[in-house]
UniProtKB/TrEMBL annotation:
Domain ATPase AAA-type core span(s) in chain numbering: 23-363
Transmembrane segments: none
Top-rank lineage group of the source organism: Bacteria
Coiled-coil residues: none
Pfam families attached to this UniProt entry: AAA_21 (PF13304)
Recorded GO MF terms: ATP binding; ATP hydrolysis activity
Protein's name according to its UniProt entry: ATPase AAA-type core domain-containing protein
Length: 418
């Protein structure tokens, strides 16, 4: 889980040490930064998950290009100011802090990683600084240093190595080992640091990020070729039928659980399943003794199917984070409450970030917010991000729900455009 996050100069996101819970709700006006915040917190993950998506030589450069080159820099930042990220997470029970800083421009030559480091996120007694596992580019671009210990106490010296400033260390580590005999010959680096880097990579690769605006209902309604290769929804959810078919083929009990959840939305549902028709695969719903395929049902029903899969489907790979931008789109208020309850009871992800404009959706998180299990962040047009604590609004909230404060534009909560 991400415990703390800092970001400077990425689009309109500038914040220090935001602290999170398992469920994190983002509210605020359009253009206040909610979507950019999700982009920021998942920047490194997106880079690792799509290293070859682009025409450039590195995962880092391709990520910079996808984010618009110099347009990813905050427009009011000083010229050549770095973009800084810092994630405080837990790896194998140990709190660590990963920092990633880079400069951007309108060409490959102007884009370089300026700092990449992994340190302990807690200060051990008797030491004046946190233990550092590795640090790159801090004193000289293109040079990094590994620690020859993996915790405070044992004798530690630093081993220097050359590192490309246009690619993350994770993507270069194997080549660095092969090129540097001293580093390859150090078992702590070859084994322990390698394991840390592997765990770090798998943590960030476990992020799943979706936006309702990208869901393509026309693709979802099409009959698909019979195959069982897709094990997760793509960004437009067009492979929904294939993913469902794969999971129900491997685990009949999962199909039963999926249907049970869907009955929270459609109480008279009898069957949800895939059938073959003319060498194609079609998803069908049966309720009120009538059969419907996805070309017959509403946008809201399609969204319910997608969110059921995203929230309640166990993943083959560990899902460390799920982020959904505006899940309430096309959803009836009663269904929004069901979706919110799914999120709070699901055990299929470690952490969740949701942006919303819906007071009805916000209502359902009130009780868990009071107990500190749901965090609410208000984004303002001046780029301020404010974490709302229950004690901050206890008088204004009273017996109301969070959505009531939002509906009435209560300044204690905020989040309105005026």
């Amino acid at each position: 889980m991400i415990n703390k996050f800092s970001c400077h100069n990425f689009r309109n996101i500038n914040t220090d040490d935001l602290e999170f819970e398992k469920i994190n709700i983002l509210i605020g006006p359009n253009n206040s930064g909610k979507t950019n915040f999700i982009k920021a917190i998942t920047f490194f993950s997106e880079m690792l998950q799509n290293p070859g998506e682009g025409n450039l030589k590195s995962a880092f450069l391709n990520a910079v290009a996808r984010n618009g080159w110099e347009h990813s820099l905050y427009k009011h930042a000083e010229e050549n100011a770095p973009i800084d990220f810092s994630w405080e997470i837990c790896l194998n029970g140990e709190p660590v802090r990963y920092k990633f800083s880079f400069e951007v421009g309108n060409s490959v030559e102007k884009c370089n990683i300026l700092l990449e480091e992994l340190s302990s996120a807690e200060l051990k007694e008797g030491y004046d600084r946190e233990f550092n596992y590795f640090r790159c580019h801090d004193f000289k671009i293109g040079v990094g240093n590994f620690s020859t210990a993996v915790k405070v106490g044992p004798k530690n010296r630093r081993l220097a190595f050359e590192v490309d400033s246009k690619e993350t260390l994770i993507m270069q580590f194997k080549d660095i080992l092969l090129k540097n005999q001293k580093i390859y010959g150090n078992e702590l680096i070859r084994v322990n640091i390698a394991q840390l880097l592997y765990d770090l990579q798998k943590y960030f690769e476990g992020f799943n990020v979706y936006s309702s605006a990208q869901f393509a209902s026309d693709k979802m309604r099409e009959a698909v070729n019979v195959k069982a290769l897709d094990d997760s929804l793509n960004q437009n959810a067009g492979n929904f039928t294939n993913v469902f078919n794969r999971y129900k083929s491997e685990d009949v009990l999962w199909k039963i659980k999926f249907e049970d959840r869907l009955r929270d939305l459609i109480p008279n549902l009898q069957v949800a399943d895939t059938v073959s028709a003319y060498d194609k695969l079609v998803f069908k719903l049966v309720y009120d003794n009538e059969q419907y395929d996805l070309s017959d049902v509403s946008e809201g029903t399609l969204k319910g199917l997608i969110l059921n899969m995203l929230i309640n489907m166990p993943m083959k790979k560990a899902r460390t984070l799920l982020a959904i931008d505006e899940p309430e789109t096309n959803m009836h208020p009663a269904w929004q409450k069901v979706i919110g309850n799914w999120m709070q009871t699901a055990d299929t992800f470690n952490q969740c970030f949701i942006s919303t404009h819906s007071p009805d959706f916000l209502d359902v998180f009130t009780e868990e917010f009071k107990h500190g299990k749901v965090a609410v962040f208000v984004f303002e047009n001046d780029t301020t991000i404010k974490k709302i604590q229950y004690n901050d609004i206890i008088d204004e909230l009273g017996e109301w729900e969070l959505g009531d404060l939002y509906r009435t534009n209560d300044p204690a909560l905020g989040g309105w455009p005026w």
